[in-house]
Amino acid sequence: MGVGAAVNMKRWAWIHKWSSVVCTAFLLLLCVTGLPLIFHHEIDEWTESVEYPPMPEGAPSANLDDVLANAKQRKPEFVAQYLVWDADEPREILVNLAPSARAETDSHLVTVDGLSGKVVHEGPADEGFMYVMFKLHVDLFAGLPGKLFLGLMGILFAAAIVSGIVLYAPFMRRLDFGDVRRGKSTRVKWLDLHNLLGVVTIAWALVVGLTGVINTWADLVIKFWQYDQLTAMVAPYKGQPAPKGFGSLQAAVETARKAAPDMIPSFVAFPGTIFSSEHHYAVFMRGHTALTKRLVKPVLVDAQTAKLTDTRDLPWYVTALLVSQPLHFGDYGGLPFKIVWALLDVVTIVVLGSGLYLWLARRRKPGQQDEAEWKSAMAPVEGGEATP
Amino acid sequence: MKIWGWPIVLGLLSAAGLMSALLGDGVWDALSWFTLGAPLAVIAFYVWRPARA
What we know:
Chain A is of the alpha+beta class. In chain A, 54% of the residues lie in helices and 13% in strands. In chain B, helix 1 packs antiparallel against helix 2. Chain B is flat and about 40 Å long. The chains are: A alpha+beta, B mainly alpha.
């Protein structure tokens, strides 16, 4: 290594050290809280033990107006924000009730059987172990500023990965791939493990890290979509007073099905919520394949007449957000996929933990043998070794 | 190449696993379990292999 390259390496080592030091505590929190979130579907199923009443073969779907009325009965003072068809359990319809259309807390979730129309489960959305994990993972209980802060930590994590890739080469010049120097000191052994575990998980960690960063911008992306598209779609209703009552949801969803005949409904945003206007049921239609079932298309239906107002494909920036979600959640390849995802998460915890250990252990006063081994191991990136 | 051979192979396998589960179902999901899981197998091999003489 020439003098210039050595100086360059020191610069990368500086970037690696400080980007890691700043983000490690938060990344550890994200990895630990993310672990149960990978399995939230399984955990919910296991803790809620929903039982669907037996129905005859080929029974028709329940009328959505009955589904909605039965759900609303559980909290008459609340309004419905969203109605969601579960993508995996065909009978499951989830109705999100809240104190107001724009409320972001105190939601009450009601699960309705899509065949019988009966309520099969209900409970507050804002409590329990999984809710705490979710909030710590998404925004540290701090709303949008919390999200953006965690996004910044994600960018630092990506910087730590990229600088780590650059540092990997000089470390490995005298070693074979996978070598772990067990005979040497604890610090040298953990340096080798840190490098091995880090380098084999680069692709996964970068994808999960950067898609996580994109997810922290979700609120902003939706705000921009409202401004960029939703306003234009509902322009004819501008200035009209908000209607007092709403017409048939069933009729509105049928209108949406006709407007997008190759698609099926994914969820409905009720009038006044962030995904709709005061005057519309926004029915979001989806495709059928692993990818297209995430790419929804909004169909805005007049909430009083059930007539079609407008439908448009989502712009590229919302599509990017929707594609980045599965790549962050790891929920798109079955249970074995989730287990692999969780194990990669654990590996990342070990990489973060060993990095932290190596940084904390640098100031210790170990025996001479240990110190000499460490200096020699670090020489490729810290200099102190005359190499041509 | 001595340094980057394995990391590149594992990176490509991981990327293939991430994409195949997203773009397909069934056999494509099953393929992703092995491709995305390849780094785990490599870690297990090097961490638990007997110390070389």
